[in-house]
Write a structure and sequence with these properties.
The chain has helices at 36-45, 59-70, 88-104, 139-144, 166-173, 177-180, 191-198, 208-211, 214-217, 230-242, 247-250; strands at 2-5, 11-13, 22-26, 75-77, 107-111, 149-152, 158-161. It has 251 residues and is of the alpha/beta class. The chain folds into two domains: 2-185, no CATH class; 186-250, no CATH class. A hairpin with a 5-residue loop joins strand 6 and strand 7. InterPro entries: DUF8212, HET. Residues 22-119 form the Heterokaryon incompatibility domain.
């Protein structure tokens, strides 16, 4: 697992990330996100005066590092730049491990870049409730897996936590409050119910509809981009093997 040093934005590989205290980012991808290769290039060619590439990192990466650093974290994980996506083996391993990585994180920062600083999450038409973050496939596991989720506005201002906003988050996401705050295990939730949480979410790649749910069902399988709807069929097959629950047929 590659982690970013919050003070330098340099990448370091950890063979046993469960032994490291790190923060993790959940966000909506936008155009021109910096990649693993981009950060390695910055380290090699565009070193800032303080000897680190953080000053030349993208605004999102830099602000995330700064926020985590102020909170006392030396390491942070960001999916756009902490996976070498040119390696199919590394990409597959990361996708299969991602739920565990979010679960093991000390804190997850949910960066809602379309939410105003002074927004009231409780208001019916709040920008918090209407954020695009709630519609993405990958953010479902990023909401459920971590014990602590901190919601941040477009300017990285604190909005609230998964626990303090549990009732609002339940209304918006459809995920049971007891599951959100880890009072109830996913193993106690039917397959059909888990599927319903993802029904209104979307992914850019068709295969990611299935891959983003592997952790929700506690299954692993090879990732094969290009297989299209076959990925979801394989997910259902693996879920049936792992979970003796026929509610999947009702779904």
């Amino acid at each position: 697992m590659w982690l970013l040093n919050t003070s330098t934005a340099e990448l370091k590989f950890f063979h046993n990330p469960s032994s490291v205290r790190y923060a993790i980012l959940s966000h909506v991808w936008r155009e021109h996100e910096q990649t693993f290769q981009d950060l390695q290039t910055l380290r090699a060619q565009f070193v800032s005066p303080d000897g680190s590439p953080r000053a030349r990192a993208s605004t999102k990466i830099r602000d995330c590092c700064l926020y985590a650093e102020r909170a006392g974290y030396k390491w942070v994980w960001i999916d756009t730049c902490c996976i070498d996506k040119t390696s199919s083996a590394e990409l597959s391993e990361a996708i299969n491990s991602m739920y565990a990585w979010y679960a093991h994180a000390d804190v997850c920062y949910a960066f809602l870049d379309d939410v105003r600083d002074k927004d009231n999450p409780y208001a019916h038409r709040s920008s918090f409730r209407r954020s695009r973050w709630w519609t993405r496939g990958w953010t479902l596991q990023e909401l459920i897996a971590p014990k602590t989720v901190v919601f941040l506005s477009s300017s990285w201002h604190f909005i609230g936590t998964k626990h303090s906003l549990a009732h609002v988050v339940e209304e918006v996401s459809g995920v049971d409050r007891a599951v959100l705050v880890h009072e109830r295990s996913l193993d106690d939730v039917s397959v059909a119910r888990r599927m319903s949480w993802a029904s209104r979410r979307h992914t850019t790649r068709e295969e990611d509809r299935a891959y983003s749910l592997m952790g929700i069902f506690g299954v692993s399988m090879p990732t094969i981009y290009g297989e299209g709807p076959r990925a979801f069929i394989r997910l259902q097959q693996e879920a049936l093997k792992a979970i003796p629950d026929q509610s999947i047929f009702a779904w």
